[in-house]
Amino acid sequence: MSNKECSHSDCEIKTFSGTDKCIFHCKKDDWYEEVNDKKIWNKKLVAKFWEEFKEHKPTIAINQTIFSEYIFPTFKRNMSTNGVLFDVIGFYSFLDNRYVKKLLSLTFSKCKFLGDGEIINIEKETNITLDFNEVIFKDIFKLNLHINKLSFNNCKFENEFHIINSNIKILKFLKTNHLKDSKLYIKKINANKFEIDDIDLSRSSDFIFQISNLTINKELNIKETNLGYLEINDLDISNATILFKNITLNNTKWGNISKIEADRDTFRQLKVANDSQGNYIVANRFFSMEMREYKKELKEKSWFSSDWQDKLIFLLNKIVSNFGQSWFLPLVWFFIISCIFYFPFSTYICGYAYIDFSLQSFAQFINLLSKRADIKYETFYHFWLIHKIISSFITYHFIIALKRQTRR
Ligand SMILES: [Zn+2]
Prior knowledge:
Elements: E1 32-35, E2 38-41, H1 43-55, H2 57-60, E3 64-68, E4 71-72, H3 83-89, H4 91-96, E5 105-109, E6 112-113, E7 117-120, E8 129-133, E9 136-137, E10 141-144, E11 146-153, E12 156-157, E13 160-174, E14 177-178, E15 183-197, E16 208-226, E17 231-236, E18 241-248, H5 264-276, H6 280-299, H7 308-321, H8 328-350, H9 359-366, H10 381-406
Parallel strand pairs: 3-5, 4-6, 5-8, 6-9, 7-10, 8-11, 9-12, 10-13, 11-13, 12-14, 13-15, 15-16, 16-17, 16-18
Antiparallel strand pairs: 1-2
The structure holds zinc ion.
């Protein structure tokens, strides 16, 4: 090792092997060979890197640690003869608090992970914040963490990236970049808060972003985002507040969504998105959420304004079929309305002579398909007609509701 210091600003570590940078900042293009798209690493150099990393640990043993523009080689555990050592000096130990007791915040800024890697912390209760800012992940990377916060800001995922079996209080993605065919998997995660901000997945059928088995306990916050081809399975947000702002849904696949706080347009988008995928049952749920928000809007408007028609239709839709959610409700209304018209009206108007409690007569009266009024109602044709009009309206609701429930 020479006596010259690394040319990287703010780095006082000695230069490495004829380069003008230290072992952490130097390019590592010649540290591996690529054979059939797989990197074969120079074990000696990689071992050297992690030894040096261990050496310099005291300098990073403070509350807040920032790795700036570090270029990391692979740190797969079993790649080296001293693989056990990798366990100790890799990031396992870092997040484990065994060596860095006071570490609260670990930031990787403009770093590159050239090889595959895995960051795990064994202790279940840690208060560490892990931030990746403008970091490039070139190879397969896995995170398995129990930490306070994990955030990705403008990171680039070039291969497969997994966050699995983790308990993270705050998980945040802001502006991601990716290469074609790259994959981002979030699986079996328990988070209090999950944030997605400014991500565009609209054109990225070639980029797989999959979320499965995600439980969010407090807050799901998605903004300025085109969720496009996002795939979500087994999302439990039943206890979370959801905030959507300027999001676009197109081909997004949603799982269970039970409790959502959002504006009407967001629900509408969720409804349309699900409708377009043939996911009608979920779409119906979003639709009833949309109506709930619409109700709030209409509530603020007066019956004596130009909006009275909207209010009336809303009220009728709600009463008759709960916005097409119930096919049973229209049947009940049809029966009630028919009884109201048949018994009191027909007897009162037509006179007691016409009282006919037979099912035959009742069926004749309520028959929507009959084009003419029965001879005994001819004198009171307008009442017969009003019943027909109301019944048609109810039947329309019945058909709509049934269609909603049964279409494929
Ligand atoms: Zn350096």
